[in-house]
Amino acid sequence: MNVDTALRARGSTRAFLPRPVPRDAVEAVLDVARFAPSGSNIQPWRVHVVGGAARDAICRAVRDAASHPPERQSWPYQYYPTVWREPYLARRRACGWGLYSLLGIAKGDRAAMAAQELRNYDFFGAPVGLFFFIDSDLGPGSWLDYGMFLQSIMLAAVAHGLATCPQASWAPFHQIVRTQLSVPDAQVLICGIALGYPDPAAAVNRFRPERLAVGEFTHWHGPEARA
Predict the structure, then answer these.
(1) Mind giving me the DSSP string for 3-23?
(2) Do 170 and 194 meet the contact criterion of CB atoms below 8 Å apart?
């Protein structure tokens, strides 16, 4: 599979088959992703892979906390804007309502929305979950490097017949995840990724939010800008 095909095929999968993912398949994905670039080659990634009983224990603990809003924990970093503005607000709403519409969740149906949100904390049924930590004293450059590493994992997964869903939704429950995995306080939970074989019969896996055309985000300068 070439890179163009993998990029277009990758999506946030929200329904997985119960088919187990062999350890060597997970290792193969990580073995490719480790070649992602990083400033001065410091390779700031720390990865925890959970499956079986370890996966189930984390899912239970976080689902329980997520089901009781007073027990919700705070984000360890700022992911979203504190104040939403256009054009980002419109894009966010289009993505959210596009997904809910495909799932048959009506506007105002808070119970159905909450149930769908809780599926995050079961990795949407994926048999393998990955958690990604970074040392808290590393700067924004290392976080940018981490993004390239995460993208590499998701593209490698596609090439190996697997699917993923990147999930920042785990971050507010970083204390629970850290405790379950015995991760020191000096490491920050960036996100989780669900990993498994996609369920081709699930309608939700057909969801693909609209992408901007190149001309909508690109500014050309110099001789190369001439058509």
Answers:
(1) HHHHHHH--B---B-S----H
(2) no
Q: Do the Cβ atoms of 15 and 204 come closer than 8 Å? A: yes
Question: Model confidence over 115-130: pLDDT tens digits?
Answer: 999 999 999 999 999 9
**How much is the pTM?**
0.95
Nearest-angstrom CA–CA distance, 169 and 63: 11
CATH entry 3.40.109.10 includes domain 3-79+121-206: yes
For residue 193, with 0-12 CB atoms within 10 Å meaning exposed, 13-18 middle and 19 or more buried, which class applies? buried
Tokens (6 digits) for 62: 């976080």
Q: Which residue, chain included where needed, has tokens 């990634």?
A: 45
Q: For the chain, what are the domain ranges?
A: 3-79+121-206
Distance, in Å, from the CA atom of 66 to the CA atom of 26, rounded to the nearest integer, reads: 28
Average pLDDT value over all residues in the chain: 95
Residue 5 has pLDDT above 70, yes or no: yes
